[in-house]
Amino acid sequence: MTRMPTTRSLVLISALAAAGLDVPAASRAQAPRDSALVERYGATAQRLIAAATRDTSAWLRIAELTDRFGSRISGSASLEHALDWVLEQMRRDGLEAVRGEPAMVPHWVRGDESLELVEPRATRLPMLGLGRSIGTPPGGITAPVLVVSDSNELAARASEAKGKIVLFDAPYVSYGETVTYRVRGAVLASRAGAVAALLRSVSPFEMRQPHTGVTQYDSTARPIPFAAISIEDAMMLHRMQLRGQPVVVTLKMQARMLPDVPSRNVVAELRGSERPDEVVIVSGHLDSWDVGTGAMDDAGGFVAAWEALLVMKELGLRPRRTVRLVGWTNEEYGTRGGLAYRDAHASELGSHDVAIESDGGVFRPSGFGFTGSDSAFAIVRAVGRLLASMGADTVTAGGGGTDIEPIMARGVPGMSLNDDGRRYFWYHHSESDTVDKLDAREVAKCVAAMAVMAYVLADLPEQLPR
Amino acid sequence: MTRMPTTRSLVLISALAAAGLDVPAASRAQAPRDSALVERYGATAQRLIAAATRDTSAWLRIAELTDRFGSRISGSASLEHALDWVLEQMRRDGLEAVRGEPAMVPHWVRGDESLELVEPRATRLPMLGLGRSIGTPPGGITAPVLVVSDSNELAARASEAKGKIVLFDAPYVSYGETVTYRVRGAVLASRAGAVAALLRSVSPFEMRQPHTGVTQYDSTARPIPFAAISIEDAMMLHRMQLRGQPVVVTLKMQARMLPDVPSRNVVAELRGSERPDEVVIVSGHLDSWDVGTGAMDDAGGFVAAWEALLVMKELGLRPRRTVRLVGWTNEEYGTRGGLAYRDAHASELGSHDVAIESDGGVFRPSGFGFTGSDSAFAIVRAVGRLLASMGADTVTAGGGGTDIEPIMARGVPGMSLNDDGRRYFWYHHSESDTVDKLDAREVAKCVAAMAVMAYVLADLPEQLPR
Description:
The structure is a homodimer of 466-residue chains.
Chain A: H1 7-10, H2 25-28, H3 31-52, H4 57-69, H5 77-92, E1 96-109, E2 113-119, E3 123-125, E4 127-129, E5 141-148, H6 151-156, H7 158-161, E6 165-168, H8 175-191, E7 196-200, E8 226-229, H9 231-242, E9 248-253, E10 256-270, E11 275-285, H10 295-314, E12 321-328, H11 336-344, E13 352-357, E14 365-371, H12 374-384, E15 394-397, H13 405-408, E16 414-419, H14 424-427, H15 440-459
Parallel strand pairs in A: 5-6, 6-7, 7-8, 11-12, 11-13, 13-16, 14-15
Antiparallel strand pairs in A: 1-10, 2-3, 2-9, 4-8, 5-9, 10-12, 14-16
Helix pairs in contact in A: 3-15, 4-10, 4-15, 10-15
C-alpha cells in the first residue's frame, strides 16, 4: 500500500529535495523523509539499540516480576502487590512522576472447579472456567454432551441441545476468528436450551492444557456456566459421539463475580524538554489471567516499555515531548484501566501524540502496527526504517491494543509492537505462559524497537498529524 | 559401516552373479542379495505397502483403544479391560492361536498427590510422583529446597542437602543421558541426607506438564519420595535460589506398592506354512503410565504390529514361519511381560528367528535398528531396502526394546522400528500422550514397514544366522 504524505506532514521534510535519489517509484515519496530522519535520528537510534540489546536486563525483570508475584488477575492481592513493587522499582529507577492512577476493576474468582467424564468411562478432564462465567450449583451439573463443530451445526441440531452441555469443538483457524466461540459460546448454547457449555481451547497447539479467557453473556439468553477443555479432550469427546457412544460429564464450578475493587494503572514519565504536556504513551498491561504467570501476556510488554524509558534515561536522552510509561490494569476482562485513563485525562487527549502498546508477547520484533491518519502513517513508517538493522522496520496499517482503544476512540493515534507471534497462542491464557518461553535477546530487541519509536516520535518537531 | 556377508548368509544368494552391476564399491557386496530379494519379494512388499497405506484403520484403532480405556498402568482394571478387548478383537479379526499368556505384574498406585510452594510465595505446582516411589507421611513433607544442576553440584553441596528436598534441575541433553536423574535421583539425594527429591521432567520441551516414569531405590540409601515437576517450575525454583530467596515446599504423596496382580501378554498368530514352530515376533506393549492415554507409548506400536498381521492376512499371504503378534504387559516398571514370555517359551527360543518391537511412537518410519550377528544384519539391511519407496529403508546397528530384551539376552536377534521421534519426548509419560499427536498416514507407513520386514524375515528360506 502506498500512502502519499499530506501537505501538513510535508512540512516536516520541506527543507529537503527529493531529486536524484535512485529509489523505486513507489517509495520515492518517502525517500526525503527517510533521509531527513536518518540524518537527524540515525545515530541516536543506533545508540538506543546498542544500549537496549547490550544485556538481558529486560528478560531478568520479567522473570523477577513473574516469579515474585505469579499470576495477576484483576481483583487479586497478587496484582496489587505486583503494582506496589513496580511503583517502588520505578522510583528506584529514578523515573519521574511515578504514581498509581486509580481504577475500579471487576473481581471474578474461579474457585474450585472440575470436569469429570462420567460416560463412556470415568476420568477427570483438565478444564478452566472462562473469565466472567457463572458457577454451577454446588453439586455440579451432570448432563449428556452434544458436540458441535461450529455454530451452523449447533443451529442445525438445536433441538438436540435442550438440557445438554454443548461442547464447541471448533478447530483453530485464527485467534480473531475462533475466539468468537469463547466470547459468544455461552449465549449460543443457552439460546438452544443448553444447561452449560464447554469450549475446545482457542489455540493452534497445546499439550492437554486448557486456555481460559473472557466470555460474555447478554440479555438474550439465560447465563450458563462455560469452561474450556483441552483440544485433545474436545477431539476425543467428538470421536466418542461420532462412534455413537453416549457422552456424559459432571461440571463443577464455584466461579463468581464479586463487587468491584480498587486497582491502579501505574505511571512513570520521562518529562519532555520542550513540550512536556504533549505525550507519547509506551505501555503494556500488568494484570493477567489467574493461570501461568502472565509473562507473555503481558508482563513482557509492560517491561519492554519500562526498559525503553530506562534506556533513554541511561543515555541522557530527553525528547521534546513527555514519554509516559503506563502499566495498565484489567486488560483481560473489562479494560477498566484504559477507560479510567481516558476519563482522568479527557481534557489532555488532544495533546497525546500517540499511544503505543505491546501486548502480543515479546518475541523477535518485526515492527509496529499503526492506526491514524495517512499522513501520520507515512511518518511512522519512516521512523520505523530506523529499526532496519534489527529487521524490525515493517510498519503495517492497523495497530493498537485493548487498553489504548478508549483513547484511540477519542482520536489518539494508536500503535502496537508487532513480533514473531507464531507460538504466542500456544501459551496464551494457559498455565504455560511463563518467562522461559521468551528469549532474552529477542526481548531486548523489543525494548530497542519501543525505545527508538517512542523517542523519535516524542522528539519530532511537530505532533503527529491526526 | 560395511558388513560383508558370511558364507552362511551367502547361501541365500548363491544362485546370483554379482558381476555387471553398477553400484558403489561399498555397496557391491550387498548388491546380489538386494537383487535376489527384490526379485523374490519386491512385488509382495509393494502389495503389503499399498494395502497398509490404503486407509487409516491403524490410527482409528489406536484412537478407539485409547479412547475406550484411557491410560493402562500395570495393576489397573483399565489395563485388564483393554487386554480383554484386544483379545476379543483379535478373535473377531480371525487371527490364529489368540490367547493371553499369564504374567504377574507389580502394582504401583499413585493416590492423591500435590506439591505446594510455601516460600517465597504460595502456589500449587503441577507434579507427578515417579513410578515405584514411596509416598510421604499423610501430612506431607515440608522442607527447604536445594536446587542442583547435576550430580556433581549435589556432591559439592552435599553438606547443604541434609533435611532438605533436593531438586535436580538438569537440562535435557538426550533421553538416555538425562533420564539417569529420574532413575537414580532418589538414591543420590537420600545418600546426601535429603528427605525427598524432585526432578525437572525429562523432556526437551513441554508446556508446564510433568513427565512421570520409573525410578529406583537400592540398598545403599533409605527410600525417599520422588516426584517430577515441570521444566518451567524447576527453572523458576532455581532462579529463586540464585536470587537468595528461601524456597520451601510441601510435598504430599499417597504413592505405594501393592501386592503383585495377574496380567497377561496378549498373543495372536499367523501360523507358518512350512515351519510353523519357527517364529518372528512383532510386538508393542499395551501397558502405559497412568497419565494421558499412552497412545504413543505404546498403543501405537502394538497396533502397528497388529495391523501388520492383518495386512498379511487380508492379502492371503502366509509366510513359511509363524508371525507371532505380542502385546506385552508391564513394560513400564518391571518388564514382567517380557520375563514371563522368556520363561514360558524358554525351550523354543532357539527357533525364534527374530523379535521386533515398536516402542518409540509411530511417527514417520525411517527403518529399523537391529541387534544380532553381522551376517544377519546384512540380510536385514537387504530386506530393509524393500522399504525404499517409503523412505523407511535405513537399518542401523543396535536395536531392540525393553520387552524383548529378556529373550535377546538368550540369543534371539532383536529389532526396533525407528521413526521420526523428534517430538516423541515432548509427550512421553505425560498427560499429553494422546492419539491426536499421531498422523494417520505416518502410522500406516509404520504398519507397512512392520508388515514387510516381518513377512520377508518369516518367509526367507533360512533362519536368520545367529
